[in-house]
Amino acid sequence: MIPLPLARIAEVTSGALAGKADPRAVVRGPVLIDSRAAEPGSLFVAIRGERADGHEFAAQACEAGAVAVLASRPLDVPCVVVADVVTALADLASATVAELPHATVVGVTGSAGKTTTKDLLARLTGRMGPTIAPAGNYNNEIGHPLTVLRADSGTRFLVLELSAREEGHIAYLTRIAPPKIGVVLNVGTAHLGVFGGREQIAKAKGELPEALPADGVAVLNADDPFVRAMADRTQARVTWFGRSAEAGVRAEEERLDERGRAAFTLRTPSGTAEVRLRLYGAHAVENALAAAAAAYELGLPVATIAEELSAAEPRSRWRMEVTDRPDGVTVINDAYNANPDSMRAAFDTLGVLGKDRRKYAVIASLRELGDESDELNEEVGRVAARAGLEGLWVVGEAPWPVLAGAKGAPAVHVPDAAAAAAELAARLAPGDAVLIKGPRAAGLEKVAQVLLGGEAR
User: Fold this and answer.
1) Among 163, 164, 157, 173, CA closest to 137
2) Pairing between β-strand 217-221 and β-strand 237-242 as defined by DSSP bridges
3) DSSP per residue, 64-121
4) Closest CA to 289 of 251, 315, 335, 256
5) Tell me, what DSSP letter sits at residue 399?
6) What is the pLDDT of residues 247-274, one digit of tens each?
7) Disulfide check for 226: which of 88, 164, 187, 453 has CB 3.0–4.6 Å away?
């Protein structure tokens, strides 16, 4: 973080100092919302959430060394009192970006693959200079500014993930940290129920290329017609990635090894290089190409891009984590989240990793799909049925469309992840393969914890 005195923080956020706050006291970072992570020099942001009110933990944060608290009401500790804490956090992040004239902001959005692409791109930009990128998927109105505030005067690249929960959300995030390069991966069916249709999803995702300056670059997926149409919505120069021949950065001679990891020839306008991914699934190629195209635009040589992509391991947890137990059981933990597209990709990967082996899956019904929920969940069931499973457990609420689609397959409903873990653990034998995949709220990562020797928490 760029060191800031409390007087400057109050000015930027239109706040008032209270609780005997010293206007000369300097916040050196980090800025955080978890009082347990407070340390000397930090700023604690008191967020009022559904389950807890951060204001109740302000004293704990200050006792741990926080200089002050960004709060919406006066407290008995040094604080900057603002009208709206989330808005003030965004204002503080915007002021930080304004102090970083030599940093390039890169935004990444899409219905699927944002976090993996962000992780790959941060690795690539790291070869060119100090890079800040969110851990996991800090991609909303709170996580986004918190990530930006980690930057300091030495930061050269900010690689940021932008999510859309409603129209205007991405536009809001781009105002916090205006991007120079914007990457749009795809327009799928995630959050279909929230937006009402893919056209509306495309409109929301297109707010990223719309926000780019005339001297910026829109990195767009040539294989997705909804993304292709975004070329007309930006004043920035457009560069294309994908598998089609018209993409300037594309994959050729693509193949999968016996573990489901892709290799391909990376072709760019200035030459080719061989890439052998350590990430699992053919869908990882799209993410790698998007990261490669953005890095290429930033000036990284194609040989270096290929070298880094080939060395990259998964950075964010519960996304295609493949673990081989000592008894030969392979556990594919892809439990962080799910949508119809990522569910199909996950079963494709299980098909490769589980070839000539007994295969099992633990899944949950997909959510936020609106009027198409039953139809899309039935299709998930059909995808599972075609996978040749020995057993399928559908966890939690509203399992019936999935079970209807999986008719003829050995599929059963269980109430929760613990029940699924218990039944699956009793069935697995050496050499089996199991996929764990579902929406975040289902908590299916607990199944993987049990299967890998831990306890479900």
Assistant:
1) 163
2) parallel
3) TT-SEEEESS--SSSEEE-S-HHHHHHHHHHHHHHT-TTPEEEEEE-SS-HHHHHHHH
4) 251
5) -
6) 999 999 999 999 999 999 999 999 999 9
7) 187
